[in-house]
Amino acid sequence: MEIVEAFLEVVGRDGPAAASSRAIAAELGVGAGALWHYFDSLDAVVAAACRRVLERTDARIASVTDGRRGLAAVDATLREILPLAKRTVDEAQVVVGFWGRLAVDRQFAGGRSDALDMWGARIQRHLAEAVDDGELVPDVPADCLAEVLLSIAVGQQVHAVLDAERADPQRQLALVHHCLMPWRPQATKMQNGCPAGSA
Known about the structure:
Elements: H1 2-14, H2 21-28, H3 42-65, H4 70-81, H5 86-97, H6 99-102, H7 106-132, H8 142-162, H9 169-180, E1 190-191, E2 194-195
Antiparallel strand pairs: 1-2
Helix pairs in contact: 1-2, 1-3, 3-4, 3-7, 4-7, 5-8, 7-8, 8-9
């Protein structure tokens, strides 16, 4: 819908704080009152925009993992969620920047939960492939590791909004690498659950 796209355009260009009903209407070249023929409130626009972001992310994940498996597919999946480039940073702004306002939106909350569950299951499946392909050791806790990796991705979305320095792309990818490293066949001896010498 054009209103949702206008909202996303304003957020991407000017930031979430600038995405008022007046700014969205100006982006469309219409009066602000015209928006409410389609949405009940700005919160409803935000919820629709967040759902659009999740749908686009899911479509990209499906596209980039087509024909890939194992750790290559895990990496491709996470790169579409982590805020590594302008597009995914803008998406993080939409999702995280209005989280407080959307906390009461049951429909949105369910949609996000469904997306996270689906992405987590996808990552877990690719981790199992990595075990089959010898990229990870057989006793890797794929379910827990998938949850940790997804938590990192979501957490980095928060950092992209609240603390841009901590959302540095190389740092984000290093966190993913660090989580996977102990479970690679060539990993060094573990000490208290961490690779030796990592402290």
